[in-house]
Amino acid sequence: MSKVVIMDHPLIKHKISLMRDENTGTKDFRVLAEEIAMLMGYEALRDLPTELVPVKSPVAESMQPMIWGKKLAVVPILRAGLGMVNGILALVPTAKVGHIGLYRDEVTHEPHEYYCKLPEHIDERLVILPDPMLATGGSAIQAVDFIKAKGCKNIKFMCIIAAPEGLEALKEAHPDIDIYVGNLDDHLNEDAYIVPGLGDAGDRIFGTK
Ligand code: PRP
Ligand code: URA
C-alpha cells in the first residue's frame, strides 16, 4: 500500500517559501532545491533495510548495522529533477544515477519522453524518482510506468510541491509507490501550473527564462 508523506518540518517549509519568491535568483534557487531534497531524502530513506556486520572498534569487535542490499538508484526526471540529485547524493554518495527525459507539451500538457539511461540491475534497486513539481501528474505517472516496465518494484517519488490533482492522479495510477511531498499547494490554473507554486522549476533552476 502506498505511503504519502507530506513534510511538516519548519526548515523545509521555510526553504520552499524562499523558492517561491519571484525575487529568488538562479543560484539561490538551485541551492534551496538541493537543501530541500537532502532534508526530504533523510525522511524518505528512514526505512532503508540494514544488516548486522562485524565492526572492530579500537576497543572491541561487535555486530553493527550497515545498509543492506544493492545500492539505490536516483533517477531524476529531466530537466528539473536534476536540481534535486546532489541533495540526495549528499546522503548516499555511492548511489547510482539514471536519467529519464520528459517534457510537458505546452498546449496539451501531455508528457513526451526524449531520453532514458538507467543503471544496471535497476530492477533490484530501490529507485528514488525526484522531480520538484507534481502538477497534473502526467510526467510522474509516465516515469513510474517506465521504471516499472524495467522490473522495478521498490519506487519512491519525491517532489517539492504537489497540486492535489497530480497527487490524486499519481496515487490512483500507482497505488504501490511511496510519495514524498514538500508542500501540497491549492490547485492548478488553466495552464496546468501549480498555484501558488513557484513558476517553471526547470527554467528557474537553469536560468533559461
Ligand atoms: C515540469 C516538472 C515536471 C512536470 C510536472 O517539467 O519538472 O516534470 O513539469 O508537470 P505534470 O505533473 O503536469 O506532468 P517540464 O515538462 O516543464 O520540463 P523541464 O523540467 O525540462 O522544464
Ligand atoms: N511544471 C512546473 O515547473 N511548474 C508548474 O507549476 C507546473 C509544471
Helical fraction: 25-40%
CATH classification, class level: Alpha Beta
| Number of DSSP strand runs | 14
Mean pLDDT: 96
| Assembly level | single chain
Span between termini: 40 Å
Give the SSE string: EHHEEEEHEEEEEHEHEEEH
List the total number of helices. 6
| Ligand catalogue | 1-O-pyrophosphono-5-O-phosphono-alpha-D-ribofuranose, uracil
% residues in beta strands: 25-35%
Describe this structure in words.
This protein has a single domain (4-206), classed as 3-Layer(aba) Sandwich (Rossmann fold), CATH 3.40.50.2020. Helices cover 33% and strands 30% of the residues. It is built from 6 helices and 14 strands. The strands form 4 sheets. Strands 1, 4, 6, 9, 10, 11 and 12 form a 7-stranded parallel β-sheet that branches. Strand 10 (133-134), helix 4 and strand 11 form a beta-alpha-beta unit. Helix 1 runs antiparallel to helix 2 and helix 2 (26-44) crosses helix 3 (82-91). The longest helix has 19 residues, at 26-44. The mean pLDDT is 96. It binds 1-O-pyrophosphono-5-O-phosphono-alpha-D-ribofuranose (PRP) and uracil. 1-O-pyrophosphono-5-O-phosphono-alpha-D-ribofuranose binds next to strand 5, strand 7, strand 10, helix 4 and helix 6.
